Amino acid sequence: MSPLGLLVVGAPREALEEVQAALAEMPARMPVPVVLVLHRGLHEVLAGPLGHRCPLPVVEPDDKEALLPGRVYLAPAGYHLLVDGNCVCLSREPAEHGQRPSIDALFESASEAHGPGVAGLLFGGHEDGWAGLAALREQGGRAAVTRAAEETEGVERVPPGGVKDWLARLVPVTRMKVLP
Amino acid sequence: MSPPERGSELERLELELLLEAVWRHYGFDLRDHARPLLLRQLRRHLREERLDTLSALQGRVLHDADAMEGLLRALAGPSRPLFAEPAFFRSFRARVVPVLRTWPSVRVWHAGCGSGEETYALAILLMEEGLWGRCRLYASDASEGLLADARTGVIPLPDEEESRHYLEAGGRRALSDYYTRDGNWAVFSRALREGIFFTQHNLATDGSFNEFQVVLCRDTLLAYNRALSHRVHRRLYESLSRFGFLCLGRKESVASTPHAAAYEELEDSGRVFRRVA
């Protein structure tokens, strides 16, 4: 397995609480950037509530902002968030599956930018995100989904309470250096 | 032959060749557009044109200038509704207009005007604020086709949402006072149409063409990669007079550009920056 370079997370609006719980499980020393698309209304304020229990800062990035490890980047309302190398690329293109931001747009661009170095976690329950997960698999990335009606090849099933274990397998806990 | 896999070496090669062909044959430089966005736009354009590959698109574009125009439209994206993001127009009224009133004359540049909806919205605002007489409003875009649309001043008849946005933007009359209805279309009044100078200008390749007190460039630079966006920011900076205003999109900033230090952001203004150096 190639080392993890980027974690992408997608969720429909109904999964807000599950996403909050998952963010609370993030390791405080997350070695990669986390990019999150949550289906949302135009005037919803989400970065604050989502960051409340998360040990990592949750920010809504501006266009062309650099993606830094140890931060959660939340797609802003009304824009698709694409990954361009290690940079944010926002877009005003039409909605996909009725959604802007769209999960597929994020997952597809992330898989093209980082190939097998991407892990994607989809909170199921919406048609948006499945094509993106498939793209992640094709490029050799890791894909997981919280709720799935049926088995999908190459896509791991993670129960809502199992996100912590899944993350722990992705990001091996780095031991503290023992100081002399 | 089946289309190449997304993100494959072959697709990348086809993309490079297409961009090179468009540049060498038409002089439109798309090579520094933000790649992930460009690819999505091109793939959608392929689906709409029922083409399988970027090479097929290249063939069509090289032999048919209309196809090139179609490509430019596809890259420009859909037109935006009138007074989209009323908060911006509201803060422009509250924060920028009072300063413009103190100046004897004002040149305004709307860079990347597309099919002109936002330009007309701005024109309506300037008219309501009594600035129309001393303003010269220039609007530019790279696509001559979009400019031709914009010049006609004809847009789909505004819907209820657009009327509501106009009022939320601080509108003082009724939106329908500014156009005459023609079936499902609206034609903007002559005073508006004749007061806007639509002119072709390619932000990616052309230099500065005047000095302005206000530059509006909202969500246009999203299409460019970081290097090109920095080059364009240099042009915008050079085109702006000292103490002039630069209006960007809601999620755009000068923060990471080479000219960050030359601007001050107006607080709670929805991304209006003032050139102070």
UniProtKB/TrEMBL annotation, chain A:
Q: Which organism is it from?
A: Stigmatella aurantiaca (strain DW4/3-1)
Name the EC number(s).
3.1.1.61
Class in the EC hierarchy, top level: hydrolase
Give any Pfam family that matches. CheB_methylest
Name assigned to this protein: protein-glutamate methylesterase
Q: Where is each CheB-type methylesterase domain found?
A: 1-155
Q: Write down the superkingdom of origin.
A: Bacteria
Q: What UniProt keywords are attached to this protein's entry?
A: Hydrolase
Reactions this protein catalyses: [protein]-L-glutamate 5-O-methyl ester + H2O = L-glutamyl-[protein] + methanol + H(+)
Q: Record's InterPro entries?
A: CheB_C, Sig_transdc_resp-reg_Me-estase
Task: List, in alphabetical order, the GO biological process terms annotated in this UniProt record.
Answer: chemotaxis
PROSITE patterns noted in UniProt: CHEB
TrEMBL record, chain B:
Q: Which domain of life is it from?
A: Bacteria
Coiled-coil positions are none
Regions that span the bilayer = none
Keywords carried by this UniProt record: Methyltransferase, Transferase
One Pfam annotation reads CheR
Question: Looking at the keywords, is Lipid biosynthesis present?
Answer: no
Q: Which Gene3D superfamilies match?
A: Vaccinia Virus protein VP39
Cross-referenced SMART domains: MeTrc
| Gene Ontology MF annotations | S-adenosylmethionine-dependent methyltransferase activity
Q: Which GO terms describe its biological process?
A: methylation
Record domain CheR-type methyltransferase: where: 3-277
* UniProt-recorded name of the protein: Methyltransferase, CheR family
Q: Which organism is it from?
A: Stigmatella aurantiaca (strain DW4/3-1)
